[in-house]
C-alpha cells in the first residue's frame, strides 16, 4: 500500500513491490555488465515452408545466461534494456553475432537460409541501425539478402512517415522485412499498405487455438488472405501441433515456425539440422511433395 506522506510524496512499503524494484535494480545493474562478461547467446529457431517442409529461414532469439539469475528470458530483460537505452549496444551485439554465426556455418559448407533478427523500437529509431547492419554484413562478407529484420506494429507507430523512410533505407541493403506479432498491435490497414515489407508473422496468440476456436481461425484466415492480397508471405508462429500445421496449410499459409518442428536451439544443433537438410518428417511431405 502507498501512504501519502504529504504533497506528492508516497512511500511504497509493499514487500512485493520492493522485491520487484530490487529485482529490477539488480537486473539493470547486471544487464549493464552482461555484454562485457559475454553472457549473451543467440539461439536459432528454424521456420519451414508448408509447400515442401524445407527450412527456409531462421530466427535469432536472444538469451541471457546470468551466473546467479540463470537463464533470463528475453521478455524479462528486453523491456528493461529498451527503457535504459541498453538495447542499442545489445542489439548491435545481436546483429554482429548473427552475422558471425552465418559466416561460420557457411565456412563449414552449409547452405544458410536468411536469418531474421528482432529489432526493438528504440533500436529501429536510433539512426545507427543502417550503419550497424551495413558494417556487420561487410565484416563477415555477407550480402544483405542473408538477413531479415522483424519489427512490430508498435515500433512503426510513433512516426509512420519516418518508419516508412527507415524501412526503405534498410531494404536498400537487400534485407527483407517482416511485421512481427501481427494482429496484437495497433497499426491500421492504411499503414500496412505503405510499408515496404515482405512478410507478416501471425502472432502465436491466434495460432494457439486456431483448430478449436472459430474466432481465432477467422483471424488467421483473414490475415492470410490480406497478406496474399498485398503480395506478402505469411508465417504462422507458435505452431505446436500437427493439427495446427495442417489447418494452416489448408488455408494457404506459406511458412510455419514453432515447437512442432523445432524449439530455438544453439548454433551447433542448428548446424546439424541444416547439414541433414532436415525436412519435416511427415506424411504430409513424404509423398506427393512438389519438386523443388
Ligand atoms: P518473437 O519475436 O515473437 O519470437 C517468438 C517467441 O515465441 C520466442 O520467444 C520463441 O521462443 C517463442 N516460440 C517459438 N515457437 C513457439 C511455440 O511453438 N510455442 C511457444 N509457446 N513459444 C514459441 P522468446 O525467445 O522468449 O522471445 C520472446 C520475444 O523477445 C520475441 O518474440 C521478441 O519480441 C523478443 N526478442 C527475442 N530476441 C530478441 C532480440 O535479439 N532483440 C529484440 N529487440 N527482441 C528480441
Ligand atoms: Mg520475432
Ligand atoms: Mg513473433
Ligand atoms: Mg510473438
Structural account:
This protein is α/β, with parallel strands linked by helices. The protein is built from 13 helices and 11 strands. The protein has helices at 15-34, 74-84, 87-107, 121-124, 129-140, 153-157, 160-171, 189-194, 204-207, 214-229, 242-250, 267-275, 283-286; strands at residues 2-4, 10-12, 40-49, 55-66, 70-72, 115-118, 147-152, 176-182, 199-202, 233-236, 255-257. The strands form 2 sheets. Strands 3-4-6-7-8-9-10-11 form an 8-stranded mixed barrel, surrounded by 5 helices. Strands 1-2 form a two-stranded antiparallel ribbon. β4 and β5 (70-72) form a beta hairpin. α1 packs across α2 and α3 (87-107) packs parallel to α5 (129-140). The chain is globular. Residues 24-278 form the EAL domain. Keywords: Phosphoprotein.
Fill in the keyword field for this structure:
single chain, 292 residues, alpha/beta, 8-stranded mixed β-barrel, two-stranded antiparallel ribbon, 13 helices, 11 strands, 20% strand, binds ligand C2E, binds magnesium ion, EAL domain-containing protein
Amino acid at each position: 500500500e502507498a501512504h501519502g506522506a504529504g504533497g506528492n510524496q508516497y512511500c511504497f512499503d509493499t514487500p512485493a513491490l520492493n522485491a520487484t524494484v530490487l529485482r529490477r535494480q539488480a537486473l539493470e545493474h547486471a544487464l549493464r555488465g552482461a555484454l562485457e562478461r559475454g553472457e549473451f547467446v543467440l539461439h536459432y529457431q528454424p521456420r519451414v515452408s508448408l509447400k515442401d517442409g524445407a527450412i527456409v529461414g531462421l530466427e535469432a532469439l536472444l538469451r541471457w545466461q546470468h551466473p546467479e539469475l540463470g537463464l533470463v528470458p528475453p521478455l524479462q530483460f528486453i523491456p528493461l534494456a529498451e527503457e535504459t537505452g541498453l538495447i542499442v549496444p545489445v542489439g548491435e551485439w545481436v546483429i554482429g553475432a548473427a552475422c558471425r554465426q552465418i559466416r561460420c556455418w557457411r565456412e563449414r559448407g552449409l547452405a544458410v537460409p536468411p536469418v531474421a533478427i528482432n529489432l526493438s523500437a528504440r533500436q529501429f529509431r536510433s539512426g545507427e541501425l543502417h550503419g550497424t547492419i551495413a558494417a556487420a554484413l561487410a565484416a563477415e562478407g555477407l550480402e544483405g539478402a542473408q538477413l531479415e529484420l522483424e519489427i512490430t506494429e508498435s515500433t512503426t507507430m510513433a512516426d509512420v512517415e519516418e518508419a516508412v523512410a527507415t524501412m526503405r533505407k534498410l531494404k536498400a541493403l537487400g534485407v527483407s522485412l517482416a511485421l512481427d506479432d501481427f494482429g496484437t498491435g495497433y497499426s491500421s490497414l492504411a499503414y500496412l499498405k505503405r510499408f515496404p515489407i515482405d512478410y507478416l508473422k501471425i502472432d502465436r496468440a491466434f495460432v494457439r487455438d486456431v483448430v478449436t476456436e472459430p474466432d481465432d481461425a477467422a483471424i488467421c484466415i483473414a490475415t492470410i488472405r490480406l497478406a496474399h492480397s498485398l503480395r506478402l508471405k505469411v508465417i504462422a508462429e507458435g505452431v505446436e501441433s500437427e493439427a495446427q500445421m495442417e489447418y494452416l496449410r489448408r488455408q494457404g499459409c506459406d511458412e510455419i515456425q514453432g515447437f512442432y518442428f523445432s524449439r530455438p536451439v544453439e548454433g551447433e544443433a542448428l548446424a546439424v539440422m541444416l547439414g541433414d537438410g532436415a525436412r519435416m518428417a511427415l506424411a504430409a511431405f513424404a509423398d506427393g511433395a512438389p519438386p523443388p
